[in-house]
Amino acid sequence: MGHLDVAGREHRMTGPYGRPTAAELVAAVAEFLDTDVRAATKNAGASAGAVNFHARVAANALRMVERELLAGDPADELEAVHRLGFDDEAALATAIRAGDLDDRPDEVTACLRALVKRRLDVAHPGYDTP
After folding, report:
1. Between vectors from CA 30 to CA 24 and to CA 36, what angle results, nearest 5°?
2. Where are the domains of the chain?
3. For the whole model, what pTM was predicted?
4. Is 4 helix (H, G, I), strand (E, B) or coil?
5. Strands, DSSP E only, in 3-84?
6. Taking the mean position of all CA atoms in its chain, how far away is CA 49?
């Protein structure tokens, strides 16, 4: 039986250190900030409004970290970079800027789509659903 993350998705990740996993710890802190801290500062005056806002920002940042931890190994995306003949994204970017891949637009587009999709899945989940 798996664990539900903050988005309600089930995962079976146990991690090398058992439970709670890093993702579960991050999710718990995000939940605390988003519920307890924000509730305690909601109507407590002007200075508390800033704390409330920063608690929301911190909770959102932690949820991004959680999604990154749950995303796992980026091997598929890196494999796309490797298939184009590069060791990393920096080398790929240099080649694109230099025009070295102008004759391979379909391969470059597929690679870039995979890289961007992974980033958006972490930073802005649901971006691709209406």
Report:
1. 125
2. 3-71, 75-123
3. 0.67
4. strand
5. 3-4, 10-11
6. 27
> Of 36, 66, 31, 29, whose CA–CA distance to 51 is shortest?
36
Angle at the Cα of 18 from the Cα atoms of 12 and 20, rounded to 5 degrees: 80
- C-alpha–C-alpha distance, residues 113 and 80, integer Å: 10
pLDDT in tens, 74-122: 777 788 899 999 999 999 999 999 999 999 999 999 999 989 988 898 8
Give the Cα separation of 38 and 57 in Å (integer). 11
By CB atoms closer than 10 A (0-12, 13-18, 19+), residue 31 is: middle
What's the pLDDT tens digit per position in 24-67?
999 999 999 999 998 888 877 777 888 888 999 999 999 999 99
Residue 43 has a CB neighbour count (10 Å cut-off) of 9
In whole angstroms, give the CA distance from residue 13 to residue 26.
14
